[in-house]
Specification:
8-stranded mixed sheet, globular, single chain, D-Amino Acid Oxidase, Chain A, domain 2, 3 domains, about 400 residues, 11 helices
Length: about 400
């Protein structure tokens, strides 16, 4: 590979930073520039989640999520250990509270074993040994799940990038691109001549290759970079609560419900973070802006994009009842608490305190179906990460390996 290759990474969340770090570490001499529109790193999905290192329990064996999550979780723990970042592999409990959930719980246990996990099926007494305050007909314990502070992970990645000499640009937005010269036939890899010019709010950036990891704005940035994806990002706000200090003893670790197989969301759950604080949530409601962290935050351009996309209406029609339930839970603290009392009956409404929300960047097809797996495509000299919701933070280092080693190889 030429030692003068220039790669521009768009997006300063955990995936963009992980891609940039792997480029610097494994492709010596590459000139790496990271462009982030916010004034700081990891301001959106990465910095607004519950900090879980997912095990890969839920994902179909052989899927990208299953493969990348399992490998990524191992790499995440190794990175945290190497950088001295607090973390814990504490395991988690998935709890069935109704008889109709028992077959799905057994299927989930079987899937976990297929994915190579340490899965233990428990009766009510066994569940209470892990979580004394849960109410369970049955449960599954998964040993490999953990917790970490992904903000600290990103801070460590930034320190590494600074040491490597990468160019880090905050407060810079990508506006578009141009291709000054078409690549010669058979020279599309990292050693190719020519390139693209990425236009930004701080001027033009010449590049041989671009990796777009724009999260909530993935489809917008893709179009600006000359690619028309057949999916659209529809933002779903996930609202959280935290347990009051007097109630945190009710949860030792991670407590999840049996998920609905027709939805990519895991349901409202309880997560003890690395700092000891217990988060409850998230629910999932349509956000009125890509960065719509409250009901009062709305963006007409974002909302217009969502409403003009046929897939949004088809998605709403397909999940009308679920959407109405999530909306009601968003507007009622009592309903939110009721969802948690299914898992831990002793929780009271007053035990739940407000907490910052997150927004999930969910790719949706025109037919209204959700893109359940990671979606990464290369178009010419640009690699587009078009769908990377949870467990993308867990999988970040393995996603970076796939992009750098498989998609940015010599042509």
């Amino acid at each position: 590979m030429s030692r003068s290759q220039r790669v521009v990474v768009v997006g300063g969340g955990i995936i963009g930073l992980a891609v940039a770090e792997r480029l610097c570490r494994t492709r010596p001499g590459t000139e790496v520039t990271v462009v982030e529109k916010e004034p700081g790193w990891a301001r959106h999905q990465t910095g607004r989640n519950s900090g879980v290192i997912h095990s890969g329990l839920y994902y179909p064996p052989g899927s990208a999520k299953a493969r990348l999550c399992r490998a990524g979780a191992t790499l995440m723990v190794e990175f945290a250990r190497a950088e001295g970042i607090p973390h814990e592999v504490c395991g988690k409990l998935v709890v069935a509270t109704r008889a109709d959930e028992l077959p799905r719980l057994r299927q989930l246990a079987a899937r976990g074993r297929e994915n190579g996990l340490t899965v233990t099926e428990l009766d009510p007494a066994g569940a209470r040994e892990h979580e004394p305050h849960v109410d369970a007909l049955a449960a599954v314990h998964v040993a490999e799940t953990g917790v970490v502070d992904y903000g600290r992970v990103c801070a460590a990645l930034v320190r590494r990038l600074e040491a490597y000499g990468a160019t880090l640009l905050l407060g810079v937005e990508v506006l578009g691109t141009s291709t000054p010269a078409a690549p010669a036939l058979g020279t599309a890899g990292m050693g190719a001549r020519g390139g693209v010019t990425v236009r930004t709010t701080r001027g033009d950036l010449p590049a041989d290759l671009v990796v777009a990891c724009a999260g909530l704005h993935a489809d917008v940035v893709a179009r600006r970079l000359g690619h028309e994806p057949d999916t659209r990002i529809v933002p779903f706000r996930g609202e959280y609560r935290v347990l009051a200090p007097a109630a945190t003893h009710l949860v030792r670790g991670l407590v999840y419900p049996v998920p609905d197989p027709d939805l990519p969301f895991l349901g409202v759950h309880l997560t003890r973070g690395i700092d000891g604080e217990v988060h409850a949530g998230p629910n999932a409601v349509l956000a009125l802006a890509r960065e719509g962290y409250t009901w009062g935050t709305a963006s007409w351009p974002d909302l217009r994009d969502t409403l003009a996309f046929p897939g949004s209406w088809r998605l709403a029609a397909r999940h009308l009842r679920t959407g109405a339930h999530e909306m009601a839970r968003s507007l009622s603290a009592h309903r939110f608490a009721d969802s948690l009392r299914r898992l831990v009956p002793e929780l009271r409404d007053e035990d739940l305190l407000p907490a910052p929300a997150g927004v999930r960047a969910q790719a949706v097809r025109r037919d209204g179906s959700l893109v359940d797996d990671f979606l990464v495509k290369r178009s010419g000299r640009v690699v587009h990460v078009l769908n990377a919701p949870s467990p993308a933070a867990t999988s970040a280092f393995e996603i970076a390996r796939h992009i750098v080693d498989d998609l940015l190889h010599e042509g």
